[in-house]
Amino acid sequence: MKLASIVFAMVLAATAASVARTMYVRARNTHVMQAPDVSAKTVAVLQPGAEVGYVGPAEKAPGWHQVAVQAARGFVYQSNLSVTKPSLAIGDSSAPRPHDGQASPTFGAVIPGLGPGAIRYGTQTETQFARAVDDIRNAEAISVGITDAELAKHAIANHLHPMVGPMEAAQ
Amino acid sequence: MRARTLLGVGCAYAFIAAPASIDDAEQVVGCLSSCVTKLNKREQCVDAAHREVSFEEEYAFGGTLAVRMVGELGLVRDAQTAVDSPALQVERYVNLVGRNLGAQSGRPNDRWTFGVLEEDPKDSAIRAFSTPGGYVFVSKTLLKRLDNEAQLAAVLAHEIAHVTEGHAIHQYQDVKASLCNTTFGTSLLEGPIADSLDLMIKVGSLVLDDEKNAKTLAKLTDDLASDVFNAGYSKPREFDADRIGAQLMIYAGYNPYEMILFLNRVPVDSAVLRNHPENKERQDALRAWIKGYCASPDNMMSGDCPFTNYPSVQIPKDIKAAIAKL
Predict the structure, then answer these.
(1) How close does chain A come to B114, measured CA to CA in Å?
(2) Which of A78, A99, A100 sits opposite B301 (nearest CB)?
(3) pLDDT digits over A91-115, tens only?
(4) Residue B193: helix, strand or coil by DSSP?
């Protein structure tokens, strides 16, 4: 393990200890793996805001950390963990929103696309932005058409940080 | 406050000027009552305008702003629909890179939509903008200037940060407050906008998807679009978006120094937004932030500093070819 990773692991361990060893998941569809490797079996899939118990850094696998999820233990890549609970809403209200932590793991499942107000605005005779309405709806369809497996495959192929999207489907 | 004082002085003057008859006295009382009504309504309206924007209101407004801003140029389209047509290929690629970032952003469960702007051939520029509701758009010229995928990620992450930090929403609240002032200011206006604002005072938010509020939605959208088109966000908000965008690049695994390098690809004289900080200022701030980030024991990534092993990721050849055809 390189020196920088050892220093990071020590810092992380100290930080985790100081916050009662609770950490939070910050990325969507974060996979907890049986071993610190993208090809390992998935133990659990967690959503942003989920609490995990921090166990410690993985030996000989820089960037991976062991966590406890209820009775199970597994490994999560560091970029998907946070020492503080992620703030997921704009503004200072604590009112729940559809995109708050532990919301649906399905992309945009509870988020509407272009609404009736926007469509009315675009298609009214004064503005003549009907083409923009069509273009945006088309872009929405392209975005929704991209699967989590494709996102995971892209990340793995390009050596980006893993763990967003179902690994099984990506392999 | 200044407006309130002036209004107060006007009312006091009318009250102090001694009425010559009962009719005059009734007029003075009427004026005073009207002044107080205006004053109260305006204050209540401004107060309601600055309350937290509801989820529904944010999405209704964000989508409309996206229509308004895309409406000027449109998005790229293919002459014929085919799986390997250039516009479709490029839009899919931009959405792939963008959605991976969105999933790791401060609003990971939101619907994120990315589009490539068509351009006026006489006015090709490096453009990128975003609106509430998770809409992010980049221009063809910008795509043609990219050295690698990390630089695309840098642009998208900066725009995503504007959304997650609610920069347009804060500006929207200001525009709403300004509309309160003009509607319930020197004269008490009547009509659909006043009715919408009246309802906002009562329920705390605007139901912008309701047909009754169509004029209000259009007015707010046009006012804010004009601000954003001409000036962009304030400098502190631009620096914020750079910093949070660089952090998002790190989370996703891209080399954050590519954000600094891409700024070299943006001509200094092409700054279409007068509030955007100078490139050098942004680059210096980013270097300082990355240095501080690496030194901080509070972040999750200090073990990887200085990110020399973080990839820049080459743009696939077929996508490069498709971008060239746009």
Answers:
(1) 7
(2) A78
(3) 333 333 444 444 445 555 556 689 9
(4) helix
CB contacts, 8 Å: B166 with chain A:
90-91
Residue B298's pLDDT band, with cuts at 50, 70 and 90, is: low
**Element housing B23 (H / E):** helix B22-49
Which CATH number among 1.20.1560.10, 2.30.30.40, 2.40.50.180, 1.10.10.10 corresponds to the domain A3-87? 2.30.30.40
Amino acid (one-letter) located at B309:
N
Nearest C-alpha of chain A: how many angstroms from B98?
Answer: 9
Contact across the interface for B67 and A114, Cβ inside 8 Å: yes
Q: How many CB pairs under 8 A join A and B?
A: 234
Measured CA to CA, the distance from residue B233 to residue B217 in angstroms comes to 21
Q: What is the mean pLDDT of chain B?
A: 83
8-state DSSP, A74: E
Measured between its terminal Cα atoms, the distance across chain A in Å is: 27
User: Rounded CA gap, B232 and B225, in Å?
Assistant: 9
Cβ contact B118:B76 at 8 Å: yes
CA A91 to chain B, closest CA, distance in angstroms equals 6
**Reported pTM:** 0.81
Mutate to test the interface with B, among A60, A161, A163 (most CBs of B within 10 A): A161
Band (pLDDT 50/70/90 cuts) for residue A171 is very low
The answer, yes or no, to whether residue A73 has pLDDT greater than 80, is yes
A108 touches chain B (CB under 8 A): yes
- Percent of chain B clearing pLDDT 70 (strictly above): 81
What residue segments make up the domains of chain B, in order of their start?
1-49, 56-167+233-325
Q: Least CB-CB distance to A129: which of B68, B100, B297?
A: B68
Q: Which residue has the higher pLDDT, A112 or B316?
A: B316
